[in-house]
Each structure stands twice: as structure tokens, then as C-alpha cells.
Amino acid sequence: MRAGAMKAGSRPPWLGLSAAVWVQVAGGASSTFALYSHALKVALGVDQSRLAMLAVACDVGDNLGLLPGVLCNRLHPAVLLLIGAAACVLGYGTTWLAVSGLAPALPYWLVWLALCLAANSGAWLGTAVLVTNMRNFPLSRGAVAGILKGYVGLSAAVYTEIYTGVLNDSAASLLLLLTLGVPVVCLLTMYFVRPCEPSLAPNSSERAHFLFAQIGSIVLGLYLVGTTILNHIVALADAWNYLILVVMTLLLFAPVAIPLKMTLFPSNHTKGPLDSSDADNEHTEPFLLPSSSGSKLTNLEDDDASDIDILLAEGEGAVKQTRRRPHRGEDFRFREALLKADFWLLFAVYFIGVGSGVTVVNNLAQVVIAAGAVDTTISLSLFSFCNFFGRLGGGAISEYLVRSWILPRTALVVCTQVVMIFTYLLFALGLYSTLHVSVALLGICFGIQFSVMISTSSELFGLKQFGKIYNFISMGNPIGALLFNSLAGYIYDLEVQKQHSTTTDSDVACYGPNCFGFTFCVLSGMACLGTLLSIVLTVRIRPVYQMLYGGGSFSVPRSSAH
Asked: With left for phi above 0 and alpha for psi between -120 and 50, is residue 185 left, alpha or beta?
């Protein structure tokens, strides 16, 4: 084993995954827009259409990840975290000035750019931890994607707990927390998020560790939903609110128990022939090892450099083109992936499923009020938990499908698109009695599509340029949000004019099913199209999964280069 490399199953990758959990929770701050959207609407004096465009700014920034996708092969993950932290300070800091009133009235376009920059910090943070951990655990991509994206889904519930229990429902205080708190988390975790030598052999202890992490996240999710509901039933004293926050923090540290257990109780599992040379050194392995990121990043840079050299040589006629195009399941270059029909089918399915779902999230406060509810935080917490459950469950269930039934992960997307057809029709009724059921179903379906897209794209097109490919497909989210939010805001404002034709105040709300009824019917129709496209995609990529998982476990395909 080369110097600086980590042994399969060693503790540093698990420390990196534990740190990534905190980064993902902190970096999911863009999901809190509903908590401060009303205060922002009042501070800027805008209508629902313009407020919807501010929500789109969050979606655009959160998914504009091509640049971090390109740089993740050239820069250490810590550098990406620092860039994300800087974007967070500038973006949320400017938004805080607008809401708090400490600065002169800021123009609308500046707040739009600030929100876009603030949300873009999530793209930098997410790319840094997701790409690093997917490469550190290549045999457990579904579990890694489900856990990390699951904690992003819990982010809104974590911030809601802090918002209601500690910050006394103050939007300005929440924005100040985001301005300062997210960068602090990045600085504290950046050392641990680093590339390590991956394990390429199935490991039963690794599966047990992932199961523990999944159970820990489920306990946290249930705890957050329970305490949020309790906060709205009983008026808790400040001491109880702080105690709830302390317990929540301890639950967020649950994944750290894995490397801690590996240190205190080292495993003596049977080693394969590749590990036997390291058996005598097992007891001397330190809790933290020197990072191998330097050599890994250098290799990736050398790959890109060699590609450029070969292209130049081919142009001069010095080298014949001998490289064949990769097959699905092998490592693709970004431009090669763009030529595949499966790439665009996956993009379209993600655009419809997530783009329509995020429209509901951005307008959730107004949807809840239109249905007759007064408090929007319970619905936001419910969506956050179900979104988390969908992301976590999507990774675990899709992993079971591919290993036990050799079914593509997108078979699960087909099911979620069908459920979304009826969920949007439930929303269209505008009834308070069906509101929470609709929010829960949408949260689960929304979350499943996130984790499935990540794992599917890595399996179809490889991990070599996964950062670019994943972030490009993610742009389906803001594109969908832009189109569907524009429709939702336009219909909402028309209905407001009908209901408040004699009122000139911009701080008015719409009530009844007509506020979003037509919008939800359109989204239901789009879900029908998404169902059809996801079926086509599943049928097309079935042979790929038979090749990758035909033996019951993931098999690394041969290189695409001769």
C-alpha cells in the first residue's frame, strides 16, 4: 500500500463522513426561505410574483454548481468549503441588512443577487463533501447519497427548531445566524473532509456502520418533528428550549460514534489477500492519518492535463485517436456524457420531479395560509422530515432494488412520479384537512428523487467527472423552479387582486383553493409526463444494472481507455 493511503475500512473516511453531516445540515440553509420570506416581502414591499423570483434566486444559487464541479478535481475540499463560507457571509449578510433595517433600503436586484450568492454557498459545500465521500465509499453510493442528502433534508427542521425555540421567531436573528454560523461549521470541519483510499471489497462492518448512521438520522428526524409539534402545543420555558437544542446537537454527533468505536474496539475481521500485508500494523493505525488528498488530486489533474496534451498531439497528427467511447457504467468525460440520451432523460426527469416540488416549497407559507392554517412552521418541519426520510429511504431502498432485484434505481422514481400526480391534485383542493397529508407525501417523493439521481448518475457515467455531471443535472431544479414559480406567482397575484380589489397594501394574503388550484393541476400534468419519461429511462438502463450488479454486489467496470 502506497505511502499516505488509508486502509480499507479505516477511521479517517468515517470521520470525513461525520464532518460532512454537519456541513450538509449547515449548508441546507437555502431551505429556510419560508421562515424569513414574509419579513423579506414586507421589508422590500413586493408582491407575491416578485417574492417568488427571490425564491428562484435561492434555487438558482443552490444548484449553480458547475464551477465547484469543475474545481473539485483540482482543489482540496477544504478550499471549496472556504469559498462556500465566504459566499455565505456576503449573501446572507446582505439579506440580513435588508430585513433588519440597519442599512438604507436595498434595491430589489441587489437582494436577488445576495440570495443567489448565499444559496450558492450550499453548492460549494455540497460538492466538497458529496464528491469526496462518494469516492471514499464507492461500493456504497446509495447509502452515502441517502445519508448526506438526508441530512440536507433535515436542515430546515434543525433551523426551524432554533428559530422557534431560541430565536423567538425573529427572521433577522435567523439571517444573522446563517451569516456567521455556517462559516464557523465550515472552519471546524474542513480538516476532516478529505479524500482517502477507498475500499473495493465488500465489507460487512461497513454495512453495519451505514445502518447505524441511518438509524441515528431517523431518530434525529423523529425528535425534531416531535419537539416542533410540542413547541406549538405547550409554551415551553427558555430552559426547556435550550435543553431541546442540546439534545439535538448530541444527536447530530451520532455518526462520530462510528470512528470512536473503531478506535476503542478495533475489529479483527478476516482480511483478504490485499489486506494481509497490513495485518501486523492494524494496532498502530492512529485516529487521524496523513491525508492522501495531495496525491489523489494530483492524479486527477494529471488526467486532465494528459487529455489536453493528447488532443493537441492529435491536432498535429502526432498521435492517432485510439480511445474508444466509453460504455454506460464506465467513466465518462463531461462532454461525452452530454451526447448520451440517458443523460438528458435523467435531466428531464429531475427537472420535472424536483423543479415542480421546489415550487411548492418556495410557496409553502402562502399555500398553508391559503388552506386556512395560521402557523406555517409545523408544515415546514413536516416537509423537512418527510424530505429527509425520502432522501434516506431512497438511498436505502434503491440499494436493495439494485442488489436483490437488479432493478435500476429509477424504478423508484417511477413510483414517486405516480404518487406526485395525485399529491398535486390533493393540493389543488385547497383543503386544510388534506394539507398535512399532501405536504408529507410531497416531501417523501421530493427527497427520493434527490438521492436516486445522485447514485444513478454516478453509476451510469462514473466517478471521474461526477462533480461536473451531478451539478449540471442539478440545474434542472432552478430551471423548473423558474418556470413553475413564475406561473404560481402570476396566478396567485391575479387571485389576490380579485379578493382585495379595493386594497392597495402589498402585505395581503390569498385564501381558498383558487390561489394555487390551477398551478397544482399543471404540476399534476407535468408529473404524468415525468412518469412516462422515467419509465423509458428505466427500461433503457436496465442492461447497465444487470452488468454492474449481476453478481449481487457492485462490480467496477473496466476502464474506458485502451
From this structure: alpha
Count of helices and strands (H, E) across the chain: 21, 0
How far is CA 415 from each of CA 141, 232, 434, 542, rounded to the nearest angstrom?
21, 34, 21, 16
Do 171 and 44 contact (CB within 8 A), yes or no? no
Contact status, residue 335 vs residue 464, Cβ threshold 8 Å = no
Helix, strand or coil, per DSSP, at residue 286: coil
Length, in residues, of the chain? 562
pLDDT digits (tens, 9 = 90+) for 78-121: 999 999 999 999 999 999 999 998 888 899 999 999 999 999 99
- Give which of 354, 296, 488, 516 is closest to 425, Cα–Cα: 516
Structure-derived torsion over alpha carbons of residues 263, 266, 267, 271, reported in degrees to the nearest 10: 100
| Of 148, 130, 128, 145, residue with least CA distance to 72 | 128
**DSSP-derived secondary structure letter, 283:** G
The set of residues, in sequence order, having a beta carbon less than 8 Å from that of 118 and lying 6+ positions away, is 29, 30, 58, 61, 87, 88, 90, 91, 92, 94, 95, 178
CA distance 38 to 293: 44
Distance (Å, rounded) from C-alpha 470 to C-alpha 264? Answer: 37
Burial grade of 423 (CB within 10 A; 0-12, 13-18, 19 or more): buried
Instruction: Look up residue 464 and give its amino acid.
Output: K
Residues facing 328 on adjacent strands: 330
Helical segments of 64-139, H only: 66-71, 77-100, 108-136
Q: Which residue has the cell 496525491?
A: 295
CA dihedral 362, 367, 373, 379 (to 10 degrees): -40
- What single string gives the DSSP state of each residue in 507-528? -----SGGGTHHHHHHHHHHHH
pLDDT tens-digit readout, 289-315: 444 344 444 454 445 554 445 445 545
Q: Which of 339, 200, 166 is nearest to 273 (CA)?
A: 200
Measured between alpha carbons, how far is 429 from 512 in angstroms, rounded to an integer? 9
Q: pLDDT (tens digit, 9 = 90+) per residue, 200-248?
A: 777 788 889 999 999 999 999 999 988 988 887 888 888 999 999 999 9
Q: Is pLDDT larger for residue 530 or for residue 559?
A: 530
- Cβ atoms 425, 524 nearer than 8 A: yes
Buried b (16+ CB within 10 A) or exposed e, 163-187: bbbbbeebbbbbbbbbbebbbebbe
Residue 269 corresponds to which cell in the numbers above? 475481521
Between the alpha carbon of residue 44 and those of residues 239, 258, 555, the distances in Å are: 35, 47, 55
- Spatial neighbors of 361 by CB under 8 A, at least 6 apart, are 31, 34, 383, 446
Task: Give pTM, 2 decimals.
Answer: 0.79
Partnered with residue 330 across adjacent β-strands are 328
Show the cell assigned to 437: 397529508
